[in-house]
User: Fold this.
Amino acid sequence: MAGDTAGGTLMGLIDPLLEKISSLLAEEYGKLTYLQSGITSLRCELRSIKAALEDLSHLEESSSLVKEWKGQLQELSHDIEDCIDDFVQRLGQDDVHDGLIGKITGWLKTMRLYHDTAGQIAKLKEHAVEVNDRRKRLKLDITPSCSSTVAIDPRLSALFEEADRLEGTKGPKDELVKLLTEGVDSLKQRRVISIVGFGGLGKTTLANLVYKNIKSKFHCTAFVSVSRNPDINKILKDILLGVLETSNPTSDDQRKYVEKVDEWPLETDRLIHMIKEYLKIRRTAWDTIQRALPLNDSASQILTTTRINDVAIYSCLPQKDYVYSIKPLSSHDSRILFFKRIFCLEKECSKELIEIADEILKKCDGLPLAIINIASLLATKAATRQEWKTVLDSIGCAIDKYHELELIKRVLLVSYRDLPHHLKICLLYLSVFPEDHTIYRDQLIWRWIAEGFIVGRPGQNLEEVGESYFNELANRNMIQLVVMGYGGGPVKCRVHDIILDLLISLSTEENFVTILNGEKYISSSNRIRRLSLQGNCEDHNEWLSRREYSHVRSLNVFGDCKNQPLFRGLKFLRVLDINDFSQKGDNVQLTEVIGSLRFLRYLRFTKVPREIGNLKLLRTLDLSSSDVEELPATIVQLHQLVRLFLPPNVKFPNGISNLTSLQELGCFSCLGNSVGIVLELGNLIKLEKLHIFWDDDGTNGCLEQYKEALVSSLRKLGNQNIQSLEIWGPEACNVDFSIDSWFPPPRHLQNFESNVYLCFHKIPRRISSFSALICLRINVQHVEQDDLQPLKDLPVLECLELRRRRSNQELESLTISGGGFRCLKTFRFSFLLFDEKTGGPCILFEEGAMPKLQQLEIDLPAIAPDIGIRHLTFLKHLQIHINCWAASACEVEATEATMRSVATGQSQSQIPHT
Assistant:
């Protein structure tokens, strides 16, 4: 098993570096003798060092001498990469030299660059020889390593999908549900219940299960994470957002308000300021939060989790009896959880492995986090006695020597040390994110690529390799999946706080990341490589102002980080991510600096510099949370730009077809640009994902021209690589033309979606020819029985969401018959506005309907017949919204009782009233 932590991280740095050196030698300037010899010998030294590192990575612990040597090697690796990047970038600058004197001047500059670079390489080679000589005195042997493509383990997906039925949770869940719901009708005062227990026991998982189980009984709800260094502003905003989203989700006005909460930081800040003024002196995070919540007679229920018993008691005051102590899993539940992760069933495990499994579980002591991590590690290995015994021995005599928290950290360290080298460095990078931060999978992969952690493989692009890395980390439970998308792929993840503590500790030891989070800074060296600012960092401005930033590769700002210092000398910066969107107007100086960051690959910011065209290596530009209204003309010079994200109504310059590498664009405002630019959109032949903003106001009579231009571009893109199309708009308008005129049909389109405002008159007939469609989410004005026919025979459709607007049609029911929707796994049918008299049509399922359906969410009238749920034999999750308008309480209760009776034992169900 891979043991040494720093050695594995260094391997993750050296592999991409050797790839870069080999590419440099293959280029034309690699033929220059005074460069070639130095680069070649430098590569030889690094290969020799790499061999030693591969052996070092199998050591359980390293001596202080070895740790010092690896620290020197890490700095050397960074310096070599900086030198190569600087040379290639300066050589590739397009300086135009007119006339004989100009050409001679340009030639002399180039020769000077070659000479300077040769000198730098000679010094780096000399340093590498010194480092390697020290390594040779350690007398280490060579051991090879390898990697492979990995998909999400289906056993992990099963655990995610069945989280509400995890072993050991039913009893505690039922007890908490009883505490939260018992006597609600008679006792109207606000009630606080706190789950307490040490880390890794599953407190948050249990709280989430309880929340999902009873949220339909409350008018409005919110589920919010609070870290140990809480950002009070963000917490209160998240609570407000949750309340708005759940209080009346079908209201158009409510949806508009929800969509703008994140865009109105000033209004939210005023609300928070008023709360703070009322409090006068903020004592603890809980004081601030609970006083912001209403203390009235509306029977509000609050569920909290904490590791500290005194905090649990304090939060529940004056009701001390509402502290719930969570217990470790029993031996029986531990076994079921362990074997389900590895084999799905215990009976699939051989007798000799069961004996070792019992020893492993004895050491895990009923801690779910430890059990799932060790089981996830074993799931990646051959099911042999030798492999399992090695893992058992690696844990050590933990049960005798360690406190529960230390036991979990010991188990996690075993899992970390077993990671391949390329995964160690990718996992360590997660330490830049704050505790409880929700991380988008794609954004994480783009950052890994920008940092140079991803090495290409034959037949795979960098994104595909990055997905494989992500999947393996998820399979090993080093990251937790929190949101799954259509087709079962992960969308968002999170790092457990105990795992994050381990990563921060390792990152600090290796000077991988420097973190300032408002209360403390974590840094092991004066040379900063990656900087993460979390929360209010005003107290550290003096420390920051004395730092030197020329070696910084990644700068990340999360939360309300006021009065940021001006970061000068960011010469080699590759990743810049500013998450503090509350101060959009305060980044003028930093905006000017960005235009000179020639090595930048990933940029998420609130403004766009006029010199954006200088960033020739930029791959990701995210301005979606900015107030940008128009892009500078130089943006069309970004020939390596792969992803561009914008807010609505941004104007593009002419020439967007020059963005020849663009694969993802959102959001493109059609009517906010000229017809010519909409036509240019069709020339982006590599485009795979397109998010369009459509608003048919203010077209000055040119609406038909815009429609024709958009359809023309969609036809071109449909013949190329387009895989996902989303069309959004601010007001209700018809978009039938977007599909009715799309011929020939797109060859690769997998996802089509419109937001709640844009509407089709009926389900488009032509969509039956979209043979690659996996997910369809649209609004329709009318739905009739025959309208479902175009969808039934789509060969790979897995997710279908139909949102029906209120109309005058008198349709009592829609019948889903057998023989269609062969691959459908998720079906949602809802009413954006209910029919006040009838409540809308019922969905009826006949025998054989939707044979693979797993998730169903539908709206029903208060008086509904048997809808045939029993025919959905694979159903796992059921959610029914009952329209109570024009219905008596008895009618609603009778329908609810019928639905619950049918659903019992077949699926996990929620039946809220509307």
In short: The mean pLDDT is 76. The longest helix spans residues 99-136. The chain is about 40% helix and 15% strand. The two ends are 55 Å apart (CA to CA).
